[in-house]
Each structure stands twice: as structure tokens, then as C-alpha cells.
Amino acid sequence: MVVGWLPPPELDPVGRQVAEYEGIRAALRQALLEILTQAGYAVQADRNSGEVRIKPVER
């Protein structure tokens, strides 16, 4: 499974550049990594694309 995030238009009525959201994306990515790791998933973040790859841990 892969998770990514882009701001919807209603969150940005003035049409800012995507790069302006890097701080928000970094915070969401870190929170997602920590939550999923604690829940028992193996996760890997791709900083270039912003995607988080998720797979269940074999038990």
C-alpha cells in the first residue's frame, strides 16, 4: 500500500505552489510513520515523491 497527500483546492483558495506545503507534508509523513510503526507495520518514506510505503510485518 502507498499513501500520499496533496492539499485539496478548498484548503488553498489563493493557489500557492505545492512547495509551500512541504512543512505540512513532512509533519504528516512523520506522524504516519510513527503511528503505523507502533501499530506493527513496516513503513518506508520516499522523500522525493512524499509517498509512504506500508506493508504488514510478518509475525
SSE order, one letter for each helix or strand: EHEE
Number of helices: 1
Low-confidence stretches: none
The proportion of residues forming helix, as a percent range, comes to 25-40%
Please give the largest β-sheet: 3 strands, antiparallel
Structural class based on helices, strands and sheet pairing: alpha+beta
Proportion of strand residues? 15-25%
On the 0 to 100 scale, the average pLDDT is: 77
Report how far the terminal alpha carbons are from each other.
18 Å
Whole-number radius of gyration? 13 Å
What's the count of strands? 3
Strand order of the largest sheet: 1-3-2
Shape: elongated
Question: What keywords describe this structure?
Answer:
59 residues; alpha+beta; three-stranded antiparallel beta sheet; 1 helix; 3 strands; elongated
Please provide a written account of the structure.
The protein is of the alpha+beta class. It is built from 1 helix and 3 strands. It has one helix at 22-38, and strands at residues 2-3, 41-45, 52-56. The protein has a 3-stranded antiparallel sheet, covered by helices on one side. The chain starts with a strand and ends with a strand. The mean pLDDT is 77.
